[in-house]
Structures are given as structure tokens and as C-alpha cells.
Predict the structure.
Amino acid sequence: MKSMKKHVSLFSTLLFTLALIAVFQAPRTYGQHPGPYYKVEPETITFGPDPAINQTFTVAVWLYNVTDQNVPAGVFGIEIKLQWNPNLIEFVNRTLYIGVEGGVLNGPYFTAKDELTNTTYPNDTYWIAASSLAGADPWFGDGKVAEFTFKVIYQPKWYEKLSASCPLQLIFTDLVDATATPVPHEREDGFYEILAPETSAVIKVEPAEITFGPHFAKNQTFDVEINLYNVKPLEVPNGTYGVEIKFSWNATLLEYVSHELMLGLSGGVLNEPLFVPYDNVTIDGGVGTYWLVATSYQPAEYWYGNGTIVKFTFRVAYQGWEPEPAASSLLDLEFTDIVMPSIPYAKSIPHAVEDGLYEILPLQHVNSFVVSYLGSDHIVTIESDGAIIAPDNLGFDPDNKQITFNVTYADGYCNVTIPKNFMWCDVDSDWTVIVDGTPLEIGTDVIVSSNETHTSLWFNFTEGDHVIVIQSTNVIPEFSPALMILAMLSLAAIPVIIRKRKK
């Protein structure tokens, strides 16, 4: 008897646990709706901002949660009225799911209403009413009542409004059981929204990325443009009449040099006459800011197309030393506005914004320079605790057999390593190192070391800016020895061929 009690107790516990699992795993909607309910699905339909006219979509009306607990006699009749705004979407067709698998009701059945009406002008309504007939089994469960397909017929313009919407509303629903008794139930409407298309206009900082270093870059200058693209007549019917930008940068990294407005100019934006109330550069707390406000006024023509708003020139103000990480500044379009004239007031044109990025890499103590000559690239390495400023191709002069570079900053050293297949001397003491026009003494001021492939020249320099020239006695020949031998053999063979032909 005790073992039997224990068995019943365990079985009861198991049933209770399974009941809890069932409660927690039940669909959330059932918790929200303890009884039957109609629901429009998907709950939300959204189109845009891409062009959407003539696209179609389908929604369904479902009946959920009909059980023998909340409708003991089962469902025998359904009725719905679905309403929408016909100025936004156009009814295309409907598919009934009555008396079929996955649908509602059991057959035989009778459809009393299946029609499109507009009795609730300006909205359209679709009315469905159906009932099982005598002999049909009562219906329980979840099922689809009908599907409705619509076509998008209206999409607002951005200058009209940002979106248009309407409910997909169940304005009337009914549900009866097998005894013709109305069944209490709830309903959930759907929602349709169409977003206005965006314009393709965009304001960009160009170049999008600017990088200097790891070679010496301080005091170098570069240009940045702020450009406006894709102001199109079909998207912006009244064109552009005004522009405003707030542009900022890190003034500890970049020194503002100058700017040039391109308003009213060829390749620029806007048309004259022009009013420019703000065209100001400010530097405050390490942040540089530029603010421009400009507008055309009558009788100026509307502006369309692509053009430059303003051009900037900056100077590299800071460059660290490794192992300091690279430093960067966002070339930041903090605020932008372009406006289209309209009545009663101007409208801001939707547009994209693309910032730029400036990066300065730290100076390296070991720098590799590529010297290109006669189709070959040669790597010259310069190790120094000063900053190396090198011209293109290390200023290589094949006639004088020399390379040239500058070194700057405090007292320091240079160790220049040159490949022997590029520049070499048969005797180490034949190398020449010239600092600011004065040759250094090899062996005393310059320590030369070499191996089978490279020669290194180590020397000191004093504080300041210096011009370094390194000369060898030999450079890579215009023709390699193998080519010279081949050419000589070819020339030698010509008389032999001529003699053979004479015979």
C-alpha cells in the first residue's frame, strides 16, 4: 500500500510538471487572448523608401484558439469585414480557406457573403460570412479564414510627407457555435505603411581617406573637397537653392591653411545671385570647425547636378615616433542641409552624408625606400634616430652614381644599407658621404661594413636640417654583363653569316 501511494504521488508530480511545461510553452497570444480571436497577419506591412508602386503583398485573416474548453459546442459560423484605404492600396484578389485543411469550418458549408464593398467610403471593405450546414462536424483549432492580395498604388514624395499609412482593420467580426450562440472573441488588426522614397543626393568629403607616413610628412599640404552629388530634377523638382554645412577636424593634427568657395562657379554648386551670411573657420580647444550658410535668391535659376561646395587646404601639423600608434582625425560633416524652394517655405532635401578620414602614421627608425631603375626595384634601408625626408626614388642620379636625402631633428646617426647589385665600390674606402656639401672622412667619420650582398655606411649628424649625398664608384649598368656578352657574340656572328652567303 505504501508503494502504491508512492507511485500515485510520483505520477501526480509528473502530471503537474507536464502541466506547467504546457503552460509555459503555450503561444504568447493565447495568454493575451484566453478565448478565440481573429488576427490579421503579418501584423505590419511596410514598403519604401525604395520605389514600390505596383508591388503586391498578401495578408491573411486567421482564427485562433478555438478549443473544446472555451467553445464546447465548436464553431459553426464565421463573419469578418476587413477594411483598408483604397487611395493607398488596391484590392487584387482573395482566397477563401473555408472547409479546407488549414482553414476554418467543416463541410458541408454555405457562403452567405463573399464580396467587395465600399459602404464605408472612403475606405473599401471585404465582407465574408460562412456557416457549416447540418451534418457538419463542429470546428476546433487554429485556421486561416482568407488571404487578401493588394497592390501598392500610392507612394508619397519626400517633399509631400515622409509616409502614408492605414490600418488593415477588422471593423466587424462574428463567431457562432453549433447551437447558433454567439461566441465571445477578440480581434487584432494589421497595419500598412508606405515610406516616401529617398533622394539619391549625397554630400561627401573627398578623398574619403588620406594617409601620410611612415616617412617624414610634417608640413606637407593636401587638399580636401566637400562635394554634392545627384541632385536630380525627377527627385528634386525645384532644384537646390541653399546649402549649409558644419565641418570639423582635429586641429592638433591638421593645420588649416585656406579654403575656396565654389558657389556659383563652374564645377561648383548653386547659381548666382548668392547670399552667404556664414563662411567662417574657428579653432577652439584643438578642434577646427568650418560653418557655411549660403543661398541663391531671385532671379537665380534652380541648381541640379554634381558639384563642389568648398575646397580646403590643410598642412600636416603633427607626426609621432614609433612605437606611438597612428593618429587619426575624422573629417566630420557634423551637420548638412540642402534645401529646395517651395511654397509656403523651403524644404530640406533628404540626402546621405559621407565623412572623410585622415591618418598620420608614426615615424620609423628604420625606413625602406624603393629605387627603381632600368625596370628593377632596389631596396635602400636607412636607420636613423632623426627624421628622413627623401625625394622620389631617393634622388637617384645614375650619371653621378649617387642617392640623396635629408635628415632633420636633434643630434643623431644614420646607417644606410645599399644592395651591391645596385650601387657598389670595389674598395670600401672609395665610398663618398657628403653632408651639406662637405665630404666626411671614410674610416673616421664614416664606418663602412659590407657582406656579399650589401654595404652599410654609418655616420653621425648634428642638430638641424642636413642634406646627405652618398656616392659609389659603380651603379647597376644599363646592360647586364650577360646581355653585353650576348650582344658581342651576335655582332661577331654577322661577318660569318655574310661570308657564308657570299660563297
In short: The radius of gyration is 42 Å. The domain at 26-195 is CATH 2.60.40.680 (Immunoglobulin-like).
